[in-house]
Amino acid sequence: MAKWGMVIDLDKCTGCQACTTACAMENNTLPGESWQDVLFYHEGEYPSGQMKWLPRPCMQCEKPSCVYVCPTRATYKDESAGGIVFVDWNKCIGCKYCMIACPYGVRFYSDEKPLIEPDMRDIYPGQNKQLWSPPYQNPKEDWSRGIGIQPPGVVSKCTFCYHKVSQAPEGTVDFDEDNPAVKEYVPACVRTCAPKARYFGDLDVPESQVNQLIGDKHGVRLKDHTGNKPQVYYLGAGAAVPAFTPADKGDKS
Amino acid sequence: MNDNNILKGGAGTALLILSALIFLGSLVVALGNLGSQGHASFNTSSALPWGQPIATYLYFALASSGLGLLASLPLVFGFKQYYPVAKRCVFLAFIILISGMTVLALELGNVFRMLWAIPLNLQIQSAMFWMGVFYALDLLFLLWKFGKLDAGEWDSKTSKQVGIASFIGVLLASGNLALIFGMMSMRPFWFDGLLPIYFYFTGVTSGMAALVFFVYLAHGFNRDKMHPAMQSLMTGALPKMFAALIGGTLLFIAARAITGLYSNNPEINIVWTDYLFASGLYHLSLWVGLLLPFVLMLNGKLRNQVNVQLLVSVLVFLGLFAERFYFVVGGQVVPLFKGTWYPDLIAYTPSVTEWALTIMGWSLAFLLCVLGEKFLNLSAMPDAIAKQGKVHPAIA
């Protein structure tokens, strides 16, 4: 059985946010409901100041704290789907405990104040129990896996584009967007990445491209001390997230 | 013995109408905004998902547990001086919990789904699942115990067994509620294995504040109208215990503040320096809401004055409400990643809808309390205590 994993090479990432846009288009997310975004931050001061950026999808943790806290099993880790963590929108009661328990901040409750005006929910009012109903919609809606446009009052998150990945031929190990045979099944953020900083494949196959990159280039997992064991690995400099310092306090380092 | 309960008369009716109007008004505002805007009418966000409605629920749930624990003093542990307030404690614990649950219900995204999704999916790994189980049991036992006391069964075997079951239910419910926060190692401001103890203690303090206020309210703020046994309690053991509870609460807060300020971890340290101690309201709640009441209650003469006890109960009530708010919000104000060009704490001020829910909860508790005072005999106590008039400390 596959175990889907993602590798993000921060030495190649340019912070262009194409992944963020592609994800929003693919999954019909609202502004601010960025299942995948890129965080920018800076550390130190001139002349040795650093600027860093960090793409952040759901880590699809091996030990997902969000799953353990959910009182209804609405959020669950589906081992038969490569270990992707899904939210069953038919079961979610909107208690938001999973958002508290996720160390990575990658869960969204879109029944909240709009990030920008006009509110897209007013422009495209929801139909058929959807929170909003834009004219273009992902045709593969599956509420039991949190795919498509959610109803009000539930939590949404990145699905590793399961609606695409699950269509790949049996035994696909490397989802390389340059390979015409599999490019349609590659997650949107990976397929759109112009500098080819993102890789997707099977962590259970030792020879897979993702495993080789992790091994050869010293892949690390974010906030590994939490014990959540993400299935997303980062390569290159910049994966060390600096400690939070309010802007008006300056850099204490 | 309850002839002196002013809430049974015209004053009670007036209060009933007033609290019903406030309840209905706030409910209409809350439901209207939730109906038209959904939870977008809250000022919470994906970065700070739990706001004032959760803090309100927490406040009510813990005040209820505190009252349940106070009721167990005479009913489980044999502190007989507390018999005169036992029945009122059980009643208040029940209605305050109902009020808190009502607020929580309107905070959830899909409240009716909860009724089948939690029991049918049996996610026993989730503390929130156990919160549902333990608080349901807590409600059941409180109701059962109240039924026993209302029937005059103070000392029967079943009554005692139900009392013990209720005591255990309260401990499990509020202790587990603490662990909902305390087990979150990714939220270091909350992460604390001893948080249940903190919740028990502060819960009893807020329960005591509610009890003192409502006992006086029932008697028109006039202690002379109370039964002698209750007068004896209100000038003896109870105010001393209230003082000790406030003092203990301050110690708990001090211990949390000192460890937080000492820590280098910004997710704890900055919450204290840049959020709690940077807020005038937090200072007000700490110094005026808790320290001032403690100082007042330390003085033996002041401690027994009706006005001082009332002032202290109101101040502690409000002070601990603020504590719950800052506890819930404080665990979330530091963003999970530094992010953005201008890193800052996540801003949160409750919206009109969130305030409406809080006011709805308070007015509902008030409404139910007045109803209880009007139609039930909440000052009942065992005949032996009632006849004796004053409970001698030696037999307590």
From TrEMBL, chain A:
Coiled coil: none
Keyword Iron in record: yes
Pfam assignment, any one: Fer4_11
Entries under InterPro entries matching the protein: 4Fe4S_Fe-S-bd, 4Fe4S_Fe_S_CS, ET_IronSulfur_Cluster-Binding
Keyword vocabulary terms for this entry: 4Fe-4S, Iron, Iron-sulfur, Metal-binding
Start and end residues of each 4Fe-4S ferredoxin-type domain: 4-33, 49-80, 83-112
A GO molecular-function annotation: metal ion binding
Keyword Nucleotidyltransferase attributed: no
Top-level taxonomic group: Bacteria
Protein name from the UniProt record: Fe-S-cluster-containing hydrogenase components 1
Species per Swiss-Prot/TrEMBL record: Nitrincola lacisaponensis
UniProtKB/TrEMBL annotation, chain B:
UniProt record similarity statement: Belongs to the NrfD family.
Name the UniProt record assigns to this protein: NrfD protein
Pfam families linked: NrfD (PF03916)
Residues annotated as transmembrane: 12-34, 54-77, 89-112, 124-144, 164-185, 197-221, 242-263, 275-298, 310-335, 355-372
Coiled-coil annotated spans: none
Entry keyword Transmembrane: yes
Subcellular location: Cell membrane
PANTHER family: PROTEIN NRFD
GO cellular-component term (any): plasma membrane
Keyword vocabulary terms for this entry: Cell membrane, Membrane, Transmembrane, Transmembrane helix
Membrane topology classification: Multi-pass membrane protein
